[in-house]
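Reagents: none. Just compute today. Expansin-like EG45 domain-containing protein.
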Amino acid sequence: MKKMVGVVVQCMLVALVCFVDVKRVLGDIGTATSYSPPYLPTRCPGYDQDQLPVNGLFIAAGSSIWDNGAACGRRYQVRCLSGSKRPCRDGFVVVQVVDLCRHSSCPTMAFSDKAFDALSKISNTKINIEYQQI
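Predicted 3D structure written out:
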């Protein structure tokens, strides 16, 4: 009987640990880089300067989240997970989609310089990110 109780307790502990680990994940995992001005024109409202958030925190979406243009205006909460030479800053940043990334090897998100600086201590590098649409 004691063995049975011990096994049940162990199973419950394993389940609890797994549940706690899953809860820490906010959303999807991807990659990010920065991109520099000029930021206009875009694939969203073209030459409209008003589409760019005043705080400068915006992205060009990679094909995996572009959704045939439906991503325009979407907002994401993003945090840096890892990268070469430990570039990550603590915390999250909220960004808005204003364009489609048009590089030949686009990451999940290409961040404006200001948005990328909020996530990474190292500019012009590739980082791994966790993101969730809000």
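The two ends are 49 Å apart (CA to CA).
Action item: order primers for follow-up constructs.
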